[in-house]
Amino acid sequence: MDYDTIIQLTVEKLPELFGDGLKVSEIHGGGSDRHYFRIGNDFLKLIFCRYGVEKKENSLFADHSDFLGEHGVRVPRVLAQDQENRCLWVEDLGGEDLWSYRDSDWISVRRPLYQAALLEVGKLHSVTERLISHLPVLNPPFNVDLYRWEFEYFMDNFVNRLSAATIDEIRPVRESAELKHLRLELSAQPRCLVHRDLQSQNVLIWKGMPALIDFQGMRYGLPEYDVASLIFDPYVVMSKEEREDLIRFLESRSNNADFRGQLLRCAVQRLMQVLGAYGFLGLVKKKSAFLKFIPRGLENLHHVAVEQGVMPVLEPMLSLRDDRFLKVLIS
To answer: How far apart (Å, rounded) are the C-alpha atoms in residues 41 and 72?
Structure first.
């Protein structure tokens, strides 16, 4: 969509806020079929989003934003929506996210921001399947089928495309009892609402406080899946000591006696999904910037699955076909 059309739609949709003198700039990045622009004048700015039809969840953002806001979760307000043209106008909470602070001091800056972000998403986790009947339309919940889909996504887009594992090594892993047990065990736990993609670029920092974005994938699942998404996020270098700091912070607040074990199991599941996404976005969608995060994602998955003993059966798959990977990365 060109800038003139964006300005025209904005003036038509929000005449009380904007008149002449609007300027538009595109916000680059991301792996979705959503396109973001900052639009405004010298006095007021907001975010304009044009979403595609690739994922039905895109159309859920406005309702999810309203619901989360009503339940005290800090999110940007949706000011207007045009479903026919697949457009949203959203409150502008600035350009800083948790990822922006990746090089800041841990004790004085990063740790309090991560703790605040985890407490913020904890408000979402307080909504369980038993508590609320009036909900916006949600995505299908995490269950055996969705966990299996994430594993197959990992197999198709990372293992088959980039892993050094041989066919003989892959075959027994695909049907292993350990992975089937993982899916069954995670599916048997009580569920709550989860963000689904809680990584450092989906937590804005506005006036020193976290605000969640890109929550249109919200569904019922395990809170530890969100926690694992953030503290094992391959976009950010986090030392084992820093990660342990956050685990202890949450462990002391959790009612789950097996919080740490469930967190590590969720980390295996989440990191498989992430590596599948990086392979798909980098190779199929030709967004090569995602490929550079694969080594760190592999390192995190190896640490949890093999070093921590959560899913050692995955070890043969957790190495790169170096010549292929470097070739695509360079191109």
So the answer is: 30
Q: Is 12 exposed, middle or buried (0-12, 13-18, 19+ CB in 10 A)?
A: exposed
Secondary structure (DSSP) of 255-293: S-TTHHHHHHHHHHHHHHHHHHHHHIIIIIS--GGGGGG
What the block records as the tokens of 179 is: 């992975």
pLDDT digits (tens, 9 = 90+) for 206-239: 999 999 999 999 999 999 999 999 999 999 999 9
pTM here is 0.93
Token readout for 209 is: 């406080």
Tens digit of pLDDT for each residue in 253-283?
A: 999 999 999 999 999 999 999 999 999 999 9
Sorted by where each starts, the structural domains of the chain and their CATH numbers stand as 3-91 (3.30.200.20), 98-330 (3.90.1200.10)
User: In terms of Cα–Cα distance, which of 54, 274, 262, 281 is closest to 151?
Assistant: 274
What phi and psi values does residue 28 have, to the nearest 5 degrees?
-85, 160
